[in-house]
Every structure is written in structure tokens, then in C-alpha cells.
């Protein structure tokens, strides 16, 4: 008799938990958000239709870059905008990966101005620049533009062509414009969440 009563109480407890939705996270997918939708929409664009990018959109991208977090807020990063034919031609001498973009954002960092981890001397300048670059990519996507991260360029050629970059380590170039190319077949190749992340 006691065993039947205990079984019934156990059943009631399970029903109560289900009614209270205490186990709902086990049975539902992660909630989508505006940011997740944007992150899924963004892709590396390697072709542009040639239309110029309006000044207000360029300024919006620069503002997103300026608002990026950096270690101890030291902001050891600078962004340059290349968009005149003369400057773009000089820039093309350092890389073949501009894809005809009407605007290119250059992101550089200055290690001497960056936070340094005291335990092992790790310098945060490149990490800060990467965060700025990510803000650029996400704002570009949100504005309906396209861009790609270009790390393949000749730093020596770049330095010779643009003396104003002296003292800065250029981390990446971001050719930007109105997309005329679709995502590559590699765009959706992602590890599963179970493979990508785990709990300690």
C-alpha cells in the first residue's frame, strides 16, 4: 500500500514540474534574437556592384568600431577609410583581395598602447583590433552592405605606400560595399553546438 502511495506521489511531482515548466529548457531550442539573426545573415562578401557607399553609412560603421570594447578601455586601435580611386589603387598594390570594393576600412593596433597581462606578458592589442573588426563586420551586415576580413596583404608594401600608417600594426582590411556575390558553399559549415561548446 505504501509503495503504491509513493509511486502516485512521484507521478504527481513529475506532473507538477512539467506544469510549472521547470524542465522546459531541456525540450526547447535556444531562443532566437536579433543578434543571432544578424550573425547568421552575415557572410564574407567577395564581390560588389560598384555603387558608392553613402557618407552616413561609412560614419555608422566607424561609430560601431569606435564603440567596440577594448581591454581596460585603452583603445590601442585606429581605423582608416580608403575610398578615393587613387588611394584604392595604392592599396591594391599590397593585396589582390579588394574585390572591387568602393570602400576599404583598415584596422591597425599599437601594442605599446595596449593592456598587457601581468602573468605572462600577453599583449592585448591584436585582440582589441579583432574586436573592432568584428564590430565593423556586424554593422556592415546590419546596414545591408557586405564585407570580408582580409588578412592577406603585404605589410611592407602597405607601409611604403602609406607613411601615415607608421607606428601601427595593420591587422586587417575590410573591403566593403553593396553585395554582388552570394555566400560561398563554406559559409554554413559550422561545428555542432555540442562539439563547439562544453561546460566545465
Strand and helix layout:
Elements: H1 2-19, H2 34-41, H3 55-66, E1 77-82, H4 85-92, E2 103-109, H5 125-142, E3 146-147, H6 155-161, E4 169-177, H7 193-196
Question: How would you describe what is shown here?
Answer:
The chain is α+β, with helices and mostly antiparallel strands and 200 residues long. The chain has a domain of 135 residues: NADH Oxidase. It has a four-stranded antiparallel β-sheet with strand order 1-2-4-3. Helix 3 packs antiparallel against helix 5. The protein is globular and about 85 Å long. About 2% of the residues have low confidence.
Quick structural gist:
The chain is of the alpha+beta class.
Give a quick set of tags describing it.
single chain, 200 residues, alpha+beta, NADH Oxidase, four-stranded antiparallel β-sheet, 12% strand, globular
Name the helicity range.
25-40%
Query: Total number of β-strand segments?
Result: 4
Number of helices: 7
| Beta-strand content bin | 5-15%
What is the CATH superfamily label of one domain?
NADH Oxidase
Arithmetic mean of pLDDT: 90
Shape: globular
Q: If strands are numbered along the chain, what order do they take across the biggest sheet?
A: 1-2-4-3
Helix and strand run: HHHEHEHEHEH
Question: What would you call the structural class?
Answer: alpha+beta
Query: Which architecture of one domain would the CATH scheme give at its second level?
Result: 3-Layer(aba) Sandwich
Radius of gyration: 24 Å
Main sheet overview: 4 strands, antiparallel
Task: Specify the CATH class of one domain.
Answer: Alpha Beta
C-alpha termini separation = 44 Å
Look up the CATH topology of one domain.
NADH Oxidase
What low-confidence regions span 5 or more consecutive residues with pLDDT below 50? 21-25
Amino acid at each position: 500500500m505504501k509503495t503504491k502511495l509513493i509511486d502516485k506521489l512521484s507521478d504527481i511531482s513529475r506532473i507538477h514540474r512539467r506544469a510549472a515548466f521547470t524542465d522546459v529548457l531541456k525540450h526547447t531550442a535556444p531562443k532566437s534574437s536579433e543578434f543571432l539573426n544578424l550573425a547568421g545573415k552575415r557572410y564574407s562578401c567577395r564581390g560588389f556592384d560598384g555603387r558608392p557607399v553613402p557618407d552616413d553609412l561609412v560614419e555608422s560603421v566607424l561609430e560601431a568600431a569606435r564603440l567596440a570594447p577594448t581591454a581596460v578601455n585603452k583603445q590601442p586601435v585606429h581605423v582608416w577609410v580608403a575610398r578615393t580611386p587613387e588611394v584604392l589603387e595604392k592599396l591594391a598594390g599590397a593585396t589582390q583581395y579588394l574585390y572591387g570594393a568602393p570602400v576599404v576600412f583598415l584596422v591597425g593596433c599599437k601594442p605599446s598602447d595596449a593592456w598587457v597581462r601581468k602573468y605572462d606578458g600577453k599583449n592585448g592589442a591584436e585582440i582589441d583590433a579583432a574586436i573592432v573588426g568584428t564590430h565593423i563586420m556586424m554593422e556592415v551586415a546590419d546596414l545591408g552592405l557586405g564585407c570580408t576580413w582580409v588578412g592577406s596583404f603585404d605589410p611592407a608594401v602597405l607601409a611604403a605606400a602609406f607613411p601615415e600608417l607608421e607606428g601601427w600594426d595593420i591587422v586587417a582590411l575590410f573591403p566593403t560595399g553593396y553585395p554582388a556575390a552570394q555566400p560561398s558553399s563554406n559559409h554554413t559549415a559550422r561545428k555542432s553546438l555540442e562539439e563547439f561548446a562544453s561546460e566545465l
